[in-house]
Specification:
Radius of gyration: 13 Å
Number of helices: 2
Oligomer: single chain
Helix content: over 70%
Order of helices and strands: HH
Largest sheet: none
Strand content: under 5%
Shape: elongated
């Protein structure tokens, strides 16, 4: 489970870096959408009732 979370956090960091460099509104929207999906996945994985949860 930790590898999944680590991969999501790594991807999130790369997207945040891309967001800072994004020139067009379209690019920013796509990146923000991906970030929302990652945050949702991280929230789901962090729930106490989820597998590997606390």
């Amino acid at each position: 489970m930790n590898t999944v979370i680590e991969n999501l956090l790594s991807r999130k960091q790369k997207l945040v870096e891309q967001l800072e460099k994004a020139q067009s509104v379209e690019d920013r929207d796509k990146i923000e959408h991906q970030l929302e999906q990652i945050n949702t996945a991280l929230d789901f994985l962090d729930r106490p009732g989820s597998k590997g949860g606390r």
